[in-house]
Amino acid sequence: MPTYEYISTTPEDKGKSCYTCRKPFELRRTMDRAQELTCPLCGNPIKKLISQVAPPQRTTFSSTKAKSSGFTVLKNMGDGVLEKE
Ligand SMILES: [Zn+2]
Q1: Distance from the alpha carbon of residue 36 to the mean position of ligand 1, in angstroms
Q2: Within a domain: residue 44?
Q3: I need a surface site. Which of 44, 70, 72, 82 has the fewest CB within 10 A?
Q4: Is 32 domain-assigned?
């Protein structure tokens, strides 16, 4: 079950938020319940925070870059023959 981060839509309003939702808090919810935007404790409106976990960086490895980095780039010529580019 994924964990979502929420915070009250009015954290500065003590009448419309409680001790928990006044600051970011985490809730483990199923995907279909993730959009329920009320605090489970006080029932006041909350909003979902964008996850702060950064997606893994995809590194694209180009042969040009490899060559400039001093690697010898071998081209697969088929039949197991590798040729220097
Ligand atoms: Zn609350």
Answers
A1: 13
A2: yes
A3: 70
A4: yes
Residue 1: both structure tokens together: 């079950």
What does the pLDDT look like over 67-81, one tens digit per residue? Answer: 777 877 777 878 777
Q: How far is the CA of 9 from the centre of ligand 1 (A)?
A: 10
Closest CA to 33 of 15, 46, 24: 46
Residue 69 within a domain? no
What is the number of domains present in the chain? Answer: 1
Distance in Å, CA 66 to ligand 1 centroid: 54
Task: Sort residue 21 into left (φ over 0), alpha (ψ -120 to 50) or beta.
Answer: alpha
CA of 7 from ligand 1 middle (Å) equals 8
Calculate how far, in angstroms, residue 55's C-alpha sits from the geometric centre of ligand 1. 29
